[in-house]
Amino acid sequence: MSPSSPRPFRPWGTLGVGAAVAAACAVCCAGPLLAVLGGLGVTSAVGALWMPALAIPAIAAGLGVLVVRRRRRKASCHTQAAPADLGRPTLGPPPKSSGSQTTR
Prior knowledge:
Elements: H1 14-75
């Protein structure tokens, strides 16, 4: 037998525990990380293939908005500038108006 040492024997040192934690994290997180990266790859591949096909409805929608705005602009009613009577009281004598008023 060996003589007793002042430090007890530890099978896992600090470095061993750190390596075990890193390995457990890699095993646990590998599946979700690969799934996310794979999903991004598939999405970008589909986007690269379908981008021209998605541009057609976008252009059609833009043209539709322009046509509707032009039609609304043509159909809008226009008013002429004229003085508005707001019904406020006046401080001086009433203004003389030239019209078809009869005096009694």
